[in-house]
Structure formats: structure tokens, C-alpha cells
Write a structure and sequence with these properties.
- There is one protein chain.
- By secondary structure, the protein is an alpha+beta fold.
- It has 7 helices and 19 strands.
- The strands form 6 sheets. It has a 5-stranded antiparallel β-sheet with strand order 6-7-13-11-12. It has a 4-stranded mixed β-sheet with strand order 1-2-5-3. A 4-stranded antiparallel β-sheet has the order 15-18-17-16.
- Helix 1 runs antiparallel to helix 2 and helix 3 packs antiparallel against helix 5.
- The longest helix is centred in the C-terminal third of the chain and has 19 residues.
């Protein structure tokens, strides 16, 4: 019965999107910046808001759980993978356009590309995002930030598809932005398009800031190694990386997972790391920092999949 149900579900999905954009038993290690993660039962690559709505309608009909993924940064997929459907917003959903001071980007657009696009239009306010290794949809979901800027400062509205497949535009206070938080962590709606309110700027000054932030990232962060980005949220009054370094944990390893020797706020995949390795290292860091400094560290990385 279950096999028949899966066949029916896959057949319906293939009516909503081309078969080449529907992958079965797909290793999530191919789709995360950590290069870690077991297989997803199904992985779909939508190319429009209409496809997203159609897919959600089908998953609801078959009671199939849905997990949303952007560029695969800021996530740790567990070793047994993800049951149900992974909806990945990639380049197919990455169109960028502008109208005056407003830049509109599909959820799959990379933050670096949106930053560069805004600069080309002499629009300022989004330079901070040049070094965040993710998509704009994921950045809104987490209210990502860097270099004193965050998404809440520039997002004016979001077009999303909600559980029943209906389209909804949320703006202003409806977005409920907080530290690494947005309403989309609560309402089940899927971010499809983001509107940014930017300002006129001087091209040379914009590019100086972009270059400066890019250089800082290249010199201070372990971008040459697979990771999920910054591992922990910033504790009040402290920096997680500084506490981890002071605790003497730089270079500490569990299996293939290692605290970066370049920046202690990052756990890297030094080679063959499993999700279990990363979780064990996170726990070790939390215990050590709490024992030495009395500060609790909470993961910023989202943990997805079957334990």
C-alpha cells in the first residue's frame, strides 16, 4: 500500500514539474554547504511560484511532509536523511529585477548575487549581505545578518505560498522579525519572492564596502572548507567564537568534524564528517564553554531530518 501511494505521489508531482527536476533518494550531502546529510525521499526543484503552489497542493493531498531548503547553508541534515519531500529553491527560483529603489529577488537568488545586482543599479543598503553564503529566502527565514546589517532592515515585503497553496504577501510588522527569527518559522508559509527597499548610493563607495566585506570574510572565515556558516547564535554580551577560543577548543575534533583553527565560531567538515560527529562536537563545545564561563551556547544551524 505504501509503495503504491509513493508511486501515485511521484506521478502527481511529475504533472506539476518536469521529471528532470524531481530527484528520488537524493543524497543531501550534495545540496548542503556542510557536504553532510543522508538521502531525501524526494527532492523537487521548482521554477515558479505556480509550481510551488501545485507541489504544496499535492503534498497536502497525500499528507507528505515538506522540508524547505535554499542554498543549503546554515543547515545540518542528519545521517538518515529527510523523509517526505525536500523543496529546494535554487537558481530556477533566482530571478532578480528592480523598480526604482526596490529590488525584487526570487527566494533562490544568492545573497552575493543580489548584493552585486544592487551595486550595479547604484543602490545601497545591501552591502552587508555580500559575505553571507546563502540564498535570500533562507536569509529572510532566519533574519540573517552580518557587519551590523540584517535582513529586517531592508526587507519591505515577502510573497509566500502558504499551506493550502494560496499566495500571500506579507509586509512590515507581519514579518515579525527578531534576532535570527521571522514569522516564517511559525506560519508554515514558503518564501518565494523578496522585496528589498534600498536607497540611492554612490557606486564607488558601494563597491569599496563590498570589497571590504569580501576581504574580511576571506581572511577571517574558513570559506575554503565545507561548513554551515557560523555554528552558534551570539550569546548576550559575548561572541561565541571568542568564548570557544578562550575555552581552548580551536582545532578540537570529533570524527571528521573540527572547530576551525581560523575562526572558532565555525565547525568545519575536515573530511568525511557525519552529522553525528557534528552534533557530538556541538555538545562538547557547549559543555566546555558553560563549565568555564557559565554561558549557554545555542546552535544557529538548523538541524533537519531523521535522527
Amino acid at each position: 500500500m505504501l509503495a503504491s501511494r509513493n508511486v501515485d505521489f511521484a506521478a502527481e508531482l511529475k504533472k506539476a514539474i518536469p521529471p528532470e527536476r524531481l530527484l528520488v533518494n537524493e543524497a543531501m550531502s550534495k545540496h548542503t554547504t556542510f557536504r553532510i546529510g543522508g538521502p531525501a525521499d524526494y527532492l523537487a526543484l521548482p521554477a515558479s511560484v505556480q509550481e510551488v503552489a501545485a507541489i504544496l497542493h499535492i503534498t497536502k493531498q497525500f499528507a507528505i511532509p515538506v522540508t524547505v531548503l535554499g542554498n543549503g547553508s546554515n543547515v545540518l541534515v542528519l545521517d538518515r536523511g529527510i523523509r517526505g519531500l525536500v523543496l529546494k529553491f535554487g537558481p530556477e527560483m533566482g530571478c532578480i529585477r528592480h523598480n526604482g529603489h526596490t529590488v525584487v529577488a526570487g527566494a533562490g537568488a544568492l545573497l552575493a548575487e543580489v548584493s552585486k545586482y544592487a551595486a550595479q543599479q547604484d543602490l545601497t543598503g545591501f552591502e552587508f549581505a555580500i559575505g553571507i553564503p546563502g540564498s535570500i529566502g533562507g536569509a529572510v527565514f532566519m533574519n540573517a545578518g552580518a557587519y551590523e546589517g540584517e535582513m529586517s532592515q531592508v526587507v519591505q515585503a515577502v510573497t509566500a505560498v502558504c499551506a493550502g497553496g494560496e499566495l500571500k504577501r506579507l509586509a512590515g510588522e507581519e514579518l515579525k522579525f527578531g534576532y535570527r527569527h521571522s514569522v516564517f518559522q511559525e506560519n508554515g508559509c514558503l518564501i518565494c519572492e523578496v522585496e528589498l527597499a534600498l536607497s540611492n548610493g554612490v557606486n564607488n563607495l558601494i563597491r569599496v564596502r563590498l570589497d571590504d566585506y569580501t576581504t574580511k570574510r576571506q581572511t577571517k572565515q574558513p570559506i575554503e572548507m565545507p561548513s554551515a556558516g557560523s555554528t552558534f547564535k551570539r550569546p548576550n554580551g559575548h561572541f561565541a567564537g571568542t568564548l570557544i577560543e578562550k575555552a581552548g577548543l580551536k582545532g578540537t575534533s570529533v570524527g571528521g568534524a573540527q572547530v576551525s583553527t581560523k575562526h572558532a565560531g565555525f565547525i568545519i567538515n575536515a573530511g568525511g564528517a557525519t552529522a553525528q560527529d557534528v552534533l557530538a562536537l556541538i555538545s562538547k563545545i557547549q559543555d566546555s564553554v558553560y563549565k568555564q564561563f557559565g554561558v549557554s551556547l545555542h546552535p544557529e544551524v538548523r538541524i533537519l531530518g531523521e535522527a
